[in-house]
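Example S7 (structure tokens).
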């Protein structure tokens, strides 16, 4: 499926329900014994980007869990994400290049909301440095004003969402395996605009939950761990386990 240009912002009811994120954080804490039994990967580096107005603090639960599963996890280290202000995109490229040089291997990029858009664009510019991209609630399709966050973005970044400082086609996926995680009950961005067109090594995965809780939603973390644990060069589409298998 591909995002539609006519998608509207989520309903006010869904926006008010974003308070669920607090309970999803509680679910994350309660699920830690289970989450710490998720498959261990090969220990490759992972770079995580926060959403709009958030910092590396917001991605600490995810990075901590992935570190427990053996990965070399890193935050973006550019402070609070206030949009593509001057120097921000260049700073992300420098961060990616520095980590590539340090580890000597490809890096998986994970981005929450606006951070997922960053991750996709970085992978388009540095495809030889990126192993895969995972976005969570990232509205790379549809009209940029079809969200409840566009006014905040314009206020913090200082530029219009209709005229971003980088020229690109956001809906075009990067040339690496790319996963888009979305929720139909997202109260900030329309789930339709988080959908990638069908293609090779491109997938859309639905979860249940809020937008503000995606980074610590246990189901999202299960999907992320599954995607990261795939051997390099052997990417396959995600499928939920069959509870009746083997019976």
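Recovered sequence:
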């Amino acid at each position: 499926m591909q995002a539609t240009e006519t998608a509207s912002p989520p309903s006010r009811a869904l926006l008010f329900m974003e308070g669920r994120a607090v309970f999803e954080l509680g679910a994350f804490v309660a699920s830690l014994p289970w989450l710490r039994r998720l498959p261990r990967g090969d220990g490759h580096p992972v770079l995580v980007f926060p959403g709009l107005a958030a910092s590396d603090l917001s991605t600490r639960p995810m990075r901590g869990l992935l570190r427990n599963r053996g990965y070399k996890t890193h935050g973006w280290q550019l402070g609070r994400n206030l949009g593509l202000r001057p120097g921000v995109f260049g700073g992300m490229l420098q961060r990616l290049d520095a980590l590539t040089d340090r580890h000597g291997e490809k890096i998986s990029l994970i981005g929450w909301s606006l951070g997922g858009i960053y991750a996709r664009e970085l992978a388009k510019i540095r495809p030889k440095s990126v192993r895969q991209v995972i976005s969570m609630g990232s509205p790379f399709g549809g009209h940029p004003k079809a969200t409840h966050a566009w006014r905040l973005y314009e206020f913090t970044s200082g530029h219009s969402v209709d005229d971003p400082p980088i020229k690109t086609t956001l809906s075009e996926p990067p040339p690496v395996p790319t996963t888009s995680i979305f929720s139909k009950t997202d109260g900030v961005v329309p789930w339709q605009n988080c959908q990638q067109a069908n293609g090779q090594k491109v997938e859309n995965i639905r979860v249940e939950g809020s937008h503000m809780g995606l980074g610590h939603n246990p189901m999202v973390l299960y999907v992320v761990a599954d995607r990261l644990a795939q051997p390099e060069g052997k990417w396959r589409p995600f499928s939920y386990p069959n509870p009746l298998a083997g019976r």
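Notes on this example. The chain has a mean pLDDT of 94.
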